[in-house]
Amino acid sequence: MKLNERSIVHLDLDAFFVSVECLKNSAFKGKPLIVGGGERGVVAACSYEARAFGVHAAMPMRTALYLCPHATVIKGDHEDYSRYSRLVTEVIADAVPMFEKASIDEFYTDLTGMDKFYNTPKFSKELKARIYKETGLPVTYALASNKLISKIATNEVKPDGQTIIPLGAEKSYLAPLAIEKMPMIGNKTATLLREMGVNTIRTLSEIPASLLGARFGKNGLELSRRANGIDETPVVPYSEQKSISTQETFNNDTIDIAFLNRELVRMTEKIGFELRQQNKVTGCVTVKLRYANFDTVTKQVSIPYTSSDHVLLRTAKELFDKLYDRRMLVRLVGIRFSDLVPGNYQISLFDDTKEMIQLYQAIDSIKRQFGAGAVIRARAL
C-alpha cells in the first residue's frame, strides 16, 4: 500500500487543561477561564470563551487579565492533567493497534488497511465517543491520508469537531488556507512569505520548489512538499519503555553522602538537558543504587509530566533517600527518565513564573553553545 493511501486520524483534546478543570467543577463551563500562575506568571491554558478576548497560552497573566478582567483564574493541577492524559492513552491503546502520542493531549492513529474489515470513518467517530464516555473529555479529530492534513484539519474544526479529508483532496483542501495554518511556518517565515506576496497555501504551492529551496534552504523544499499536501512522516508507535538514562560507577566505593548527592545532581541535570533537547517530558523517574557487595536496588515513581530540573532533582533526591538504607559502601548510582512524551516547557507554565521559564531557556541556550557542563548547580561541584 502506498504512503498516500494511508488512513491517519489526528485526535486533539479540546483545551485540555480547561476541560479537566470543568470536569472537576462544572461551574467553569461556558465561562472565561484561565489556567496559570500568579500575577507574575503566564497563561498555561484558557477556555475558548477567554480566547474570544484575545487571551492565549504563554501570555503574561497581567496582559490576559487586562484583556479579560472578568475571567476566573486558577493555578491548575499538573498531577490531574497527567492522570487524565494517561486515561486517554489507555482508551486509545485498547482500541487501536498502532498510535503515536504526540504530546500530553495529542495523538495520531494509523488505521491503514482497516477498511478491509471495518468502516474507518465509523470507527473514528466511535473512538471519539468512547474517549468522551470513559474520560469525560471532549476531543476533535480529522481523518486524512497523512499526518499533516489530519493535524491542520483538526485545528480547523475545533472544538469538539470531526471531519474527513478524502484521498486526492489534500491540495485543494489546503489551497484557500492562510500560510500561518501550515505547521513549520512561524512568525518569521510567515513575514518573509507575505513580503514575497504569498498569503495562501495555494500561492505557496505554485512557487517552484527550487526557488523556495534557494530562499529557505532544506525547509523551503519541505514547505513546497507540504503546500502540495505531501507528507510521508510515519506514525511512530507509542511506547512507555522509551527512556533516557545515565549511571556512574565510582573508582572507589564510597559512603560519602555529600559526594553521592553531588553526583545525583550532576547526572539529573545532564539527562534533564537531554530531555529538553529532544523536546520531551517524562512521567516516571527511577534511581538505581549498587552497593559494594554488588546488591542492586531500584525505586521508581510516576510523576506529573515535566522536564524541569528542580522537579526532577527533588524527585531523584527523595528516591535516593528511600533507597540508601544500609549504610554500606556504594559502587554505582544511576538515574532513568521513562514514560517519555513529546512536549515542551509550556506544560509547566502554570507552575512557574515567567522569570523561571526564561531562566531555563537561557541556561539551555548556554549549554547548547558550550556543552552540557557549562552551567551546573553549585551543589554539583
UniProtKB/TrEMBL annotation:
Residues 8-186 form the UmuC domain. Gene3D superfamilies: 3.30.70.270, 3.40.1170.60, 5' to 3' exonuclease, C-terminal subdomain, DNA polymerase, Y-family, little finger domain. Its cofactor is Mg(2+). One of its GO terms (biological process) is error-prone translesion synthesis. It catalyses: DNA(n) + a 2'-deoxyribonucleoside 5'-triphosphate = DNA(n+1) + diphosphate. The record marks F17 as: Substrate discrimination. It is an enzyme of class 2 (transferase). Its main location: cytoplasm. It is found in: Cytoplasm. It holds the Pfam family IMS_C. It comes from the Bacteria. SUPFAM superfamilies: DNA/RNA polymerases, Lesion bypass DNA polymerase (Y-family), little finger domain. GO terms for molecular function: damaged DNA binding; DNA-directed DNA polymerase activity; magnesium ion binding. Belongs to the DNA polymerase type-Y family. NCBIfam families: PRK02406.1. This is DNA polymerase IV.
